[in-house]
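Progress note, sequence design subtask.
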């Protein structure tokens, strides 16, 4: 099974062979072949049918994960989407409009059956739900814990939620999320921590604004997100860089770990004139683990 990373996950509309060809060499940690909202209803069946051969061709050693975003359960299309894509080479399913842990369990049952039929090791295909696209989803965020064994991470979305709520916009004139979407974002972060899985920030729609994207990624990383969704090739490199700890941060983390290892009797130490205690040690270890093997 591939070790999944979540710095940058690039959406690629599943009906575009050209975009898929381009997307593979960009350095994204994952590609999300989208069967949902970036594909027009009339193209969905053909897009779905085209995916199997791409997954077969990608069933080789590679350093990116192959995700497919299926259509939401309420469309009636989900099972046919899954039947076309659950095969060796697939790493995970993104589930849009998830309304809670019960949806993850429901998807897990379908995957159990399809993996068996495809001769795959049970549990290979992971699940990445978008957890804030419906109001019910927001109220059920606690239900992702304890995490289903297939639950890989949580991410959130603002566009569908705004449409359901009837909002005229989800960002203010300053470009920042308005309060309802700040709430959704924060709750996604907390729900992921509660379920002990990574949180992945949502996409940055303005794909011609690398500076804005980078600044936004730095805020996301500061807050605890490990990566984010991307929609355009130009975003991948910016996102990867922004979510990578800097050498200075890694150096400090190594010094924090070393200070506690050299002084196992201490619960708090001073480093660079600042108090460092057990929460800092945990964070330092987490940061070092995130770059291990990179
Ligand atoms: N993956 C791979 N390649 C992509 C891409 C993507 N997500 N988005 C754009 N490209 C390619 C284009 O095909 C184009 O290729 P070319 O130079 O060979 O012609 C190149 O990158 C530059 O694209 P650009 O002209 O800047 O953008 P566009 O107008 O062609 O596309 C979008 C803009 C938004 C339609 C496109 O970025 C896209 O489809 N994004 C993903 C949308 C999606 O999946 N949304 C679902 C989640 S909300
Ligand atoms: Mg959506």
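Output:
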């Amino acid at each position: 099974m591939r070790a999944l990373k979540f710095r940058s996950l690039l959406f690629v509309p599943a009906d575009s062979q050209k975009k898929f060809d381009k997307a593979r060499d960009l350095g994204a940690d994952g590609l999300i072949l989208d069967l949902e909202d970036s594909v027009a209803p009339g193209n969905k069946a053909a897009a779905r049918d085209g995916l199997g051969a791409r997954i077969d061709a990608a069933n080789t050693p590679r350093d990116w994960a192959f995700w497919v975003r299926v259509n939401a359960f309420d469309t009636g299309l989900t099972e046919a989407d899954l039947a076309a894509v659950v095969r060796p080479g697939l790493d995970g399913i993104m589930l849009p409009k998830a309304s809670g842990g019960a949806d993850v369990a429901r998807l897990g049952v379908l995957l159990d059956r399809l993996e068996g039929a495809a001769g795959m090791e049970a549990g290979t295909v992971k699940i990445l739900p978008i957890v804030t696209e419906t109001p019910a989803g927001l109220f059920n965020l606690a239900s992702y814990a304890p995490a289903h064994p297939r639950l890989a991470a949580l991410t959130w979305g603002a566009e569908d939620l705004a449409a359901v709520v009837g909002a005229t916009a989800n960002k203010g004139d300053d470009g920042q999320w308005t309060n309802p979407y700040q709430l959704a974002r924060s709750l996604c972060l907390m729900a992921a921590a509660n379920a002990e899985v990574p949180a992945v920030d949502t996409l940055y729609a303005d794909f011609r604004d690398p500076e804005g994207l980078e600044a936004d990624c730095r805020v996301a990383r500061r807050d605890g997100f490990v990566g984010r969704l991307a929609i355009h090739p130009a975003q991948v490199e910016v996102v990867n860089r922004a979510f990578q700890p800097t050498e200075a941060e890694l150096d400090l983390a190594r010094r924090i770990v070393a200070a506690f290892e050299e002084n196992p009797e201490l619960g708090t130490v001073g480093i660079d004139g600042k108090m460092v205690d057990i929460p800092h040690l945990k964070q330092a270890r987490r940061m070092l683990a995130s770059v291990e093997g990179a």
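The chain has two domains: 8-244, 249-288. Work on this subtask will continue into the next period as scheduled.
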